Amino acid sequence: MTEQRRQSTQERPAGPRQGRLLARAAPGHPSEASSVTPGLQPLGLEEGRDGLLYIPVGYSPERPAPLALMLHGAGGNAHHGLGFFLDHADTAGLILVSPESRRATWDVISGGYGPDVSYVDRALQLVFRRCAVDPAHVSVEGFSDGASYALSLGLTNGDLFTHVIAFSPGFAAPADQRGAPRVYVSHGVHDDVLPIDRCSRRLVPLLQQAGYDTTYHEFDGPHTVPTDIVREGLTWFLG
After folding, report:
1. Where is the stretch described as Disordered (predicted)?
2. Which of 21, 51, 77, 167 matches a 20 to 30 Å C-alpha distance to 85?
3. Cross-strand bridge partners of residue 133
4. Using alpha carbons only, what angle is made at residue 96 by residues 217 and 149, rounded to the nearest 5 degrees?
C-alpha cells in the first residue's frame, strides 16, 4: 500500500477500469438546482437496480452541504445503504447518495473495477449538477463488503473524497492511491463474518504505515454497527 501511494504521483490513465471517478462538485450555483426537492427519491438512472438520493429538510443551494456516498453490503440494496445515516441526515444537513451495485456485490470484489465505478460516477455527476456540495466534506461510507469497497474506492479517489468511513471492512484494494483522505474504521471483536484479526487488525496498521490519518474503534459485538458507532463515525466526519 505504501509503494502504491508513492507511485501515485505519476500520471496514470483515468477511468472505470482504474477505479477512478471523474465527477466533481462545481463551484457556484448547481446547474439543475431548480429540480431539487427535499426528501427521499430515486436516482432514476436505470430501471431495476438503481439507487436513492436523500436531500435533507432545510437544504439550500446557497449553503453547500456535506455529502456521504453510502455503499450497501453484499446482497443489499439502496435502502440498506442509507440505513445508518438516514435518521441523522436532517439534523446534520447531510446529502446521502446510495447507489446499488450492478450485481450482488461490488465490482472489485467480484472481478475488478468497471461497471460499479461507472454507475457511481453517473450518480455523483447527477447529484453535483443538482446540489451544492461542500468539497471539504465529501465522504464514502460502507458496511461489510460496502466498507471494503468504500476503502478501495476512497483511497483510489482521495482527491474527491475527504473522508472514508468503513464499518467492519474485510480488505482494501485501491487501484491507485490519490490524495490523503482521513479514514475511520470500526469493527466488532466478535465478528464471525469478517473476523477482526484477519481484517481490521491487519488493515488499520497498513493504513497508518501508508500515512493515512486513521481513527480506529473496536467494540464488543458481532458483525454489525451499533448506534453509538454510527453517531461516532458521523460526528467524526462532520467535525
Report:
1. 1-42
2. 21
3. 65
4. 55
